[in-house]
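To illustrate the input format used throughout this study, we show a single complete record. The first block contains the structure-token representation of the backbone; no residue identities are included at this stage. The design step must infer an amino acid for every position from geometry alone.
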């Protein structure tokens, strides 16, 4: 909820302008300074209970001067931070209760304050109570998609009726959203929730509404008419009909059609023009979506990977493109041909030596081929390209590769 915190601190800075109790560290009204002080005293590595308590004391000084809901909510978030810093369970419980009291105070001052309602939902004692607070948020702002998703998840814990009630909120949120990756991800969730709840008829009805919203046939026809010459249209079309969630629930036909159209357009392109053609990258991203849904596609399209790999070799790779993405997906499609797959993975790394994803992919191929030492070399290189927080999986792969003869 960092975005809420930033908002609260901006409000806090405004309140500080009107108060005689001003921070001894920050200038009055300096929102950035106030935020940094909070992070330093309550959240960063060097933060202690004592430093965070000092921050809470400043907030309480301000609260004595004025009844500002935002100040009370900020004190609630600070109390949660103190609970997280505590090693004593009884002290932790006290801070969490304090946080709830601050949220209730803010709510009593302004029942329309959404930040306080989120705080009350987060500190609720039961799923039903949490649902009640989230419903109040949606009464104030029906388009709050985060609240609707949280409410649906919470209601799902109450049994089938809860799932169905939650779906009404999700469907309303879906209807209010513009076409985007977030909208299609929500569509996938709604469809799967209907299936899990045993509501096949409702799932089918919802699927038809998604099909109408996606406009797959219209997009395909528009791209065919323009012969895939407009990069903007190709990019927009692929972001919809080749979206991973759209493919998951509507199938892959439209996406395959788009990829075929791009490859046909590339067939007619001169070698010099293809080298930097963005359509190659768009095709590669679309193919990745298919690969992520391969378990659903395999049952209806058989040898689609081999056929698509061969098509890419003719239409794209023969023209020596400079797109590491297309070589990477070709390596994934050609996994049954070790030589082709390894050659494409190596080419992707040559074109983008500082991309940890391509380097890791090459290491995984070496590992699959039993070439442990070469795999370790790639995994170590990938680690050097990533922050330490992302080393965990690579360390596991290094241990596995170390056991490979």
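Output of the design step:
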């Amino acid at each position: 909820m960092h975005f809420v915190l930033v908002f609260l601190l901006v409000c806090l800075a405004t309140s500080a302008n009107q108060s005689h109790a001003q921070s001894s560290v920050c200038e009055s009204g300096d929102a950035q300074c106030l935020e940094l002080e909070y992070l330093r005293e309550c959240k960063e590595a060097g933060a202690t209970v004592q430093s965070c308590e000092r921050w809470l004391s400043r907030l309480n000084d301000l609260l004595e001067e004025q009844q500002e809901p935002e100040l009370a909510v900020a004190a609630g978030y600070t109390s949660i931070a103190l609970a997280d810093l505590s090693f004593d369970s009884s002290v932790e419980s006290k801070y969490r209760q304090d946080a709830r009291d601050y949220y209730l105070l803010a709510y009593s001052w302004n029942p329309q304050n959404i930040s306080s309602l989120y705080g009350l939902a987060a500190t609720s004692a039961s799923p039903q109570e949490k649902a009640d607070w989230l419903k109040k948020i949606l009464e104030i702002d029906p388009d709050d998609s985060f609240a609707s998703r949280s409410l649906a998840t919470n209601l799902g814990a109450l049994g089938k009726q809860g799932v169905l009630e939650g779906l009404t909120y999700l469907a309303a949120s879906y209807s209010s959203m513009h076409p985007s990756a977030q909208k299609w991800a929500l569509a996938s969730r709604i469809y799967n929730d209907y299936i899990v709840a045993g509501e096949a008829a409702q799932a089918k009805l919802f699927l038809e509404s998604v099909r109408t919203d996606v406009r797959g046939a219209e997009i395909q026809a528009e791209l065919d008419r323009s012969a895939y010459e407009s990069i903007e249209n190709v990019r927009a079309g692929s972001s919809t009909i080749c979206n991973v969630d759209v493919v998951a629930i509507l199938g892959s036909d439209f996406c395959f059609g788009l990829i075929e159209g791009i490859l046909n357009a590339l067939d007619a392109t001169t070698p010099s023009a293809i080298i930097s053609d963005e359509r190659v990258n768009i095709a590669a991203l679309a193919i990745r979506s298919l690969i992520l849904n391969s378990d659903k596609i395999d049952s209806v399209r058989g040898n689609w990977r081999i056929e698509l790999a061969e098509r890419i070799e003719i239409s794209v790779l023969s023209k020596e493109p400079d797109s590491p993405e297309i070589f990477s997906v070709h390596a994934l499609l050609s996994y049954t041909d070790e030589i082709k797959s390894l050659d494409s993975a190596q080419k992707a790394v040559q074109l983008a030596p500082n991309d940890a994803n391509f380097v890791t992919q090459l290491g995984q191929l070496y590992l699959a081929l039993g070439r442990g030492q070469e795999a370790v070399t790639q995994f170590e290189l990938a680690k050097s390209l990533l922050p330490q927080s992302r080393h965990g999986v690579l360390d596991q792969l290094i241990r596995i590769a170390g056991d490979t003869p």
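Structural context for interpreting the output: Confidence is low (pLDDT under 50) at residues 1-25. The longest helix spans residues 89-109.
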